[in-house]
Amino acid sequence: GDSVTQMEGPVTLSEEAFLTINCTYTATGYPSLFWYVQYPGEGLQLLLKATKADDKGSNKGFEATYRKETTSFHLEKGSVQVSDSAVYFCALSDEEFWGQNFVFGPGTRLSVLP
Amino acid sequence: EAQVTQNPRYLITVTGKKLTVTCSQNMNHEYMSWYRQDPGLGLRQIYYSMNVEVTDKGDVPEGYKVSRKEKRNFPLILESPSPNQTSLYFCASSRWTGVEGSEKLFFGSGTQLSVL
Question: How confident is the model over A29-33, as a mean pLDDT?
């Protein structure tokens, strides 16, 4: 079945450092790819998405590019802030299996120190 | 305001005592789903519903029941809770776009359940 693998962390960075969180996937169809973020005590919320190969999703300074050849969707940010401290989930959605198609990775906890 | 509302936010119960966690969305979404979140395991799908009266099992359905009698509500029922069901639960909903592909999920704030 479909699956998502991501670095589990925790990842600890200093403010203004560069961030990369790796995400790779396996899917039988042509999935859409997502990054969700979970701030402490809250539910998940969509950070960015990409629906086809070579698409770049971006939001709040975060970016990720859909790489079909490497089945990857790595999250990057050039300069992290303390407010970016959260858990980040990579996810896929495979339209061939609509009902069960939101598959999440295990999450990566990011802590940004001032 | 568009939202998914779960209740209660926190729940402590004892083994075997039936409980229901409610979930309601005000966005007229067709698709609703329940997940549990456990450390190191991420989110795992329990049950999902494509529309009213249409439900199906996710990856970890054992010990849970759901119903979808109205479009806006999707309660999660634990008939006889056990300690291994201690977890953080999330309800989510999404619009069904058919051939246009997947829409993003809207999540509730979560229910922290402890079964003693």
Answer: 85
With an 8 Å Cβ cutoff, are B42 and A98 in contact?
no
Round the CA-based radius of gyration of chain B to a whole number and report it: 14
Hey, what long-range contacts does B44-53 have (CB within 8 A, 24 or more apart)?
A: B44/A104, B45/A100, B45/A102, B46/B76, B46/B89, B47/B76, B48/A99, B48/A100, B49/B74, B50/A98, B50/A99, B50/B96, B51/B96
Over residues B58-79, the mean pLDDT reads: 96
For residue A105, what is the nearest residue in chain B, using CA coordinates? B42
Cβ distance of A44 and B108 shorter than 8 Å? no
In this complex, which of A42, A99, A104 lies closest to B48 when CB atoms are compared?
A99
Q: What confidence tens digit (pLDDT) does each residue in B9-53 have? A: 999 999 999 999 999 999 999 889 999 999 888 899 999 998 899
DSSP secondary structure code for residue B59 in this structure: S
Does pLDDT of A63 surpass 70? yes
Chain B residues with CB within 8 Å of chain A CB? 4, 31, 33, 35, 40-45, 48, 50, 56, 58-59, 90, 92, 96, 101-102, 104-105, 107-110
